[in-house]
Design a protein that fits this description.
oxidoreductase; 271 residues; Nitroreductase; 4Fe-4S binding domain protein; elongated; 15% strand; 10 helices; Alpha-Beta Plaits
Length: 271
C-alpha cells in the first residue's frame, strides 16, 4: 500500500498531476492515495518535493534522493559510450565477481516495465555452465539435423552445419574451442511473460556490463535452442509461461578496441 504522511504533505498536487491512473486526490489540502487503481509505479514517491509518500510493499531503502552531479550524464559522452559498445567473443580466464553480476541485474530491475508489471526474471549460471552448454548443443545438433533434411533455405542450412560441428567438437573435446559461450565464466538468462520488458531490461544491463569493464555477447544460438524445446528451461527451473528473451554471456574481455566501428546511415522517416 502507498500512503501519504499528512503531517509532511504540503498539498502541492504534484503527485495528483503525475498519477496516470488517477488514484490520488487532494482532500482538505492533503494528498490521499486511494490504492484502488494504483499499479505501484512509485511516481508519487519520486515526485513529492517533501518525501511525504512511502510504501510498505517495496523497500524504501531503494529510494535515492536526486543529486545532479551523480545523476547527470553528458549527452555526447553517453552517445560515445554507446558507440563504443562491442560484442565480445574473447574472454579472459577470470571469474566475474557476484557483486558485479548483481549490479548488472540491478540495471535490469530498475528498467521500466509495461503497467509496472516488474515481471522480468534472471537466472545466473556459473558452476553449471558446462552442463548448460552440453544440453544446448545437444538441442542444436538435433535441430540442425532436422533443418538439413527439411529446409532449402541456405542460411538455415549453414547454421545447421555449424551447430552439428559445434556439437561434434564438444563431444570430442569438451574443453576445446567454444563457439557457444566462448569460455566465458558466467551467463545471465533473462526471461519474462512480456518479451519487450525483458528486452528493455537487457539493453540497460548491457550498458552496466560495459560500465563495469566487462564484456558480453547475446547468445542467439541459446535462445533459439530454447524455442519449442523444454530441456534447457527445465534444467534452469524456468516456468513454462516464461519466454527466454536473452542470454548474456559475460566475462572480462581479452581484446581491446581502439575506436568505434562504422555503421550504415539510419533509415528515418520524418512526418
Amino acid at each position: 500500500m502507498f500512503k501519504v504522511n499528512d503531517k509532511i504533505c504540503i498539498g502541492c498536487g504534484m503527485c495528483v498531476k503525475d498519477c496516470f491512473v488517477r488514484d490520488i486526490e487532494l482532500v482538505e489540502g492533503k494528498a490521499v492515495i486511494k490504492n484502488v487503481t494504483c499499479f505501484k509505479c512509485g511516481h508519487c514517491v519520486a515526485v513529492c518535493p517533501v518525501a511525504a509518500v512511502s510504501t510498505n510493499e517495496y523497500s524504501m531503502d531503494d529510494v535515492v534522493e536526486y543529486n545532479k552531479e551523480k545523476f547527470t550524464i553528458e549527452p555526447d559522452n553517453l552517445l560515445n559510450f554507446i558507440k563504443f559498445e562491442r560484442t565480445i567473443r574473447q574472454f579472459k580466464e577470470k571469474d566475474v565477481e557476484n557483486e558485479k553480476l548483481l549490479k548488472i541485474i540491478e540495471a535490469g530491475r530498475f528498467t521500466q516495465t509495461a503497467s509496472n508489471a516488474q515481471n522480468v526474471n534472471y537466472i545466473v549460471v556459473k558452476e553449471e555452465i558446462q552442463e548448460v552448454r552440453k544440453i544446448t548443443l545437444e538441442v542444436l545438433n538435433s535441430l540442425g539435423g532436422y533443418i538439413l533434411e527439411n529446409s532449402i533455405n541456405p542460411l538455415y542450412k549453414r547454421y545447421a552445419k555449424m551447430w552439428i560441428k559445434m556439437y561434434n567438437d564438444f563431444i570430442t573435446n569438451p574443453l576445446g574451442e567454444d563457439n557457444l559461450f566462448f569460455k566465458a565464466p558466467a551467463l545471465i538468462v533473462v526471461t519474462s511473460e512480456h518479451p519487450l520488458n525483458a528486452g528493455l531490461a537487457s539493453a540497460n544491463m548491457k550498458l552496466m556490463v560495459d560500465a563495469l569493464g566487462l564484456g558480453t555477447v547475446f547468445s542467439g544460438f541459446f535462445t533459439r535452442a530454447c524455442e519449442g524445446n523444454s530441456r534447457i528451461k527445465d534444467f534452469l527451473g524456468i516456468e513454462e509461461k516464461q519466454t527466454v528473451v536473452t542470454c548474456m554471456v559475460i566475462g572480462y574481455p581479452n581484446v581491446k578496441y581502439s575506436r568505434t566501428a562504422p555503421r550504415k546511415a539510419p533509415n528515418i522517416i520524418w512526418k
